[in-house]
Description:
Number of helices: 3
Order of helices and strands: HHH
Number of strands: 0
Largest sheet: none
Amino acid sequence: xxxxxxxxLVGAVLIFASIMASTLSARLGVPLLLLFLIVGMLAGEQGIxxxxxxxxALANFVGQAALAxxxxxxxxxxxxx
Length: 81
């Protein structure tokens, strides 16, 4: 049960950091992708949070599925008024 709580805490911290990066990006005029990369580097194996990453195939699948959803969202015809 403690592992699940830690997982929820880390997820919440990462979402909060992403929201703060978005707000900071708008104020400073820095590209949001750059701040997301910095947050990812801080959360990675050699960063502050030290999250281990070992499931490359799963990450590849999730990334490709997200990209496919984005492509479908922006290229599908939608009714226009």
